[in-house]
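User: Some background: our group keeps a shared notebook of sequences we're curious about, and every so often someone picks one and asks for a predicted structure to add to the entry. Today it's my turn. The entry only has the sequence so far, pasted here. Could you supply the structure so I can complete it?
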Amino acid sequence: MTENPSAGTRFDAVIHAPVRLRVCGILRRIDEIDFAVIRDTLRISDASLSKHLKALSDAGYVSTNKTASLSRSDARRVTWVKLTHAGREAFDSHIAELDVIANGHPAPEPSHPQLRTWSPTFGATPEFG
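Assistant: Of course. Here's the predicted structure to add to the notebook entry:
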């Protein structure tokens, strides 16, 4: 039996939404990043990014931390965003599954055994050799 190349990969509908996929792609390469940097990089509104971060947070894929801004004189705070360990695993698995889909690797083996057909064999017969 050969090992299935897609074993352990999983398509993740939470991550697959285009903005969330891009957010995870940004976060995967760094420890944490300012909310505003993500917003500006993706060119989306605060409300849109907040909505997508909430979905990722509810799934346990990102965490946020608010800190006082040293560069601002007002009371505004900076929101730092990071991918959790579970988020990294889910993102990596999702990307691996997309690779399987894109490159046409075989589908995962079925969880049940293949049905076999039975055909009797009786040995050589004089007519058929």
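Suggested note for the entry: Confidence is low (pLDDT under 50) at residues 1-6. Helices lie at 13-16, 18-28, 35-42, 46-58, 85-103.
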